[in-house]
Design a protein that fits this description.
This protein is mainly β. The protein contains no helices and ten strands.
């Protein structure tokens, strides 16, 4: 393969009578072109809507370079670095939109052919360039165990952190997820 195009979508909508509804939608699209010696340029766009942090829409575009430290038939581990542009609109109309230039550094580990178990984990740190002192972090870990007849059990954890969130009590947003699938 000379290139890869990856995309994902995850939506959560939780309602209870005694608290406000929680909605979180996350989508991404990424492109990598493979060069010699396991280097690759990358372009990606991420979209996030999150009631916990009062984000109507956060759009993050990333351009950078990556390198696979390890790449075999059953796993890969890679690192990435580059710049990103962050555009944020908030659910509170009194809060103005924010646009900022950020750097990014990331690491991704994927163990996908180790018997009945697979693990995918990634972390991306966004230190602010035009907003010095701001740090955002996106991380996830997914562990899947394959059962007979193509069924599986999956556990996941996703973390979104912003040290300068507009909602002071919501620097962190996290999700624990369990799945049974076929």
């Amino acid at each position: 393969r000379k290139w890869t195009l990856e995309g994902n979508f995850n939506g959560i909508n939780s309602k209870r009578d005694d608290v406000n509804a929680v909605r979180r939608t996350n989508a991404s699209l990424g492109y990598r072109y493979f060069l010699q010696k396991d280097w690759y340029p990358l372009a990606a766009i991420n979209l996030l809507s999150n009631t916990e942090q009062n984000i109507a829409l956060r759009t993050v575009g990333r351009l950078g370079m990556g390198k696979y430290i390890i790449r075999t038939n059953d796993m890969y581990w890679g690192v990435q670095a580059g710049t990103s542009y962050n555009n944020e609109r908030f659910t509170d109309p009194a809060t103005t939109s924010r646009n900022s230039l950020e750097g990014f550094i990331a690491s991704e580990l994927n163990l996908y052919d180790i018997g009945d178990l697979s693990l995918l984990t990634s972390v991306i740190a966004y230190p602010g360039i035009t907003e010095p002192g701001r740090l955002r972090l996106d991380g996830s870990i997914d562990l899947q165990y394959d059962l007979p007849l193509d069924f599986f059990i999956k556990l996941g954890f996703t973390l979104n952190y912003d040290n300068e969130s507009i909602q002071s009590n919501s620097e962190y947003d996290y999700i624990f997820q369990t799945s049974v699938g076929w």
